[in-house]
Amino acid sequence: MKKGQVYEGMIEKVEFPNKGLVWIAEEDRYVTVKNGIPGQKIRFVVNKFKRGNAEGRLLEVMEKSPLEKRDPVCSIFPACGGCMYQTMPYEEQLKMKAQQIKEIIDSAVKTEYEFEGIQASPKEFEYRNKMEFSFGDEYKDGPLSLGLHKKGSTYDVLTAGDCRLVHPDMNRILLCVLEYFKEKGAGYYKKMQHEGYLRHLLVRRGDTTGEILVNLVTTTQEEYDLQGLTEALLKLELDGTIVGILHILNDSLSDVVQSDETRILYGQDYFYEKIMGMEFKITPFSFFQPNSRGAEVLYNTVREYIGDIKDMTVFDLFSGTGTIAQVLAPVAKQVIGVEIVEEAVEAARENAKRNGLDNCRFIAGDVFKVLDEIEEKPDVIVLDPPRDGIHPKALPKILDYQVDKIVYISCKVTSLARDLEMMQGRGYEVVKCVGVDQFCETVHVETVALLTRK
What residues bind S-adenosyl-L-methionine, as annotated (predicted)? Predict the structure, then answer.
């Protein structure tokens, strides 16, 4: 088998997060091909070898999978990289994700534990409260587009005017912004040449409140009068209400949404969302679970796993805007949250005050350093680290507290599995574990694990 060779085969299974396994009999080996569904017959080209394992790039789906029992729900599937499984019934998506989690945790856990399957998102569609759209073109030198990247492409952008992951309000806003800049003849920022104006459109919408924050991200290389855009957006017939329109200036060379300067074109630079009876103020870059109703399922699971914490001190490490801390605070003695993003910590403090919680404290800083400075000792620890898990220098410090109970929330189960090795080596065992699907139609899934000290 060589790079560049083309093969045909059936995807036997898909491993987390998106790795289809295709058996090639004549080569007596499996090839990993991304962006497929179990049961599809595909044609692919071998494009790399990693640690001796062959990887292929999907060229064509020759036959649909028997699992594909639904028609696509938007106009740009399957080319769009936003969705993967929308032609599979949701029950089948859940089964596949549960199996992926179980296989990874089974291989990482050294003792008996209870796998509790997977919990579904209350909403399968229109669940995202945040979407980051990119400006670009669908093909080289094509007309301006605004939406999501094609699968496997860092350049081609498909206009996502009927995306079903978001509320229709977001689609109406996207199409309004796109049409406005098409009429103006504005160009998008070209990453290789570092030239151009339009970068991203970041839209956030409260699922329960209907409050909408529109953030246009551009460079400073050109200037346009944005009053007309503001007026066009405010005239839209929406189910929700636009409470803020922001112009975010970003001259960074890297393709990330960040702010060198933020100008308020209309209203305010925040919106409110309600979860589990509490109200949270969310700013453009605040981390907040992107599926509000799914977050309630996740936080109820955490509360159930953590059990009775009356008269206990809880550490919420990697606490973001403090949602978990505030969910736990009413039933705990005190909760101390640690988060490296200063803006998120400020929002957490404000949200705790808004929700009448005086037993929450939030500290801005790196978990690795902050733990040396906190005088209190925790009785229970909640971990909700970034996708790549906990830094190997920070994890031993966390385990040094020798608390009886740890709840670990992971958005990448392979990172959790890696961290479990050290945790088990330091005397912890996994009691139970469950998947929580917050990202229907996509390859992503959350995992919650309860560990106790032997």
Answer: 289, 318, 339, 384
How many CB atoms neighbour CB 9 within 10 A? Answer: 21
Question: Which residue reads 């292929």 in tokens?
Answer: 56
Whether residue 144 sits in one domain with residue 239:
yes
Q: What is the pTM of this model?
A: 0.93
Stretch (H or E) spanning 342: helix 342-354
Whether residue 124 is annotated as binding a ligand: the answer is no
Q: Domain with 230 in it: what CATH number?
A: 2.40.50.1070
376 inside domain: yes
Residue 384, marked binder: yes
- 304/387 same-domain check: yes
- Residues 117, 236 within the same domain: no
Check whether residue 309 and residue 209 sit in a common domain.
no
Are 431 and 359 within one domain? yes
CA atoms within 13 A on the CB side of 199: 25
Task: Specify the DSSP element, H or E, that contains 392.
Answer: none
Catalytic residue, chosen from 80, 83, 360, 411, is 411
Indicate if 265 and 394 belong to the same structural domain. Answer: no
Statement to judge: residues 441 and 293 lie in one domain: yes
8 A C-beta contact, residue 384 and residue 409? yes
Based on the residue annotation, tell me whether 440 is a catalytic residue of this protein: no
339 is in an annotated binding site: yes
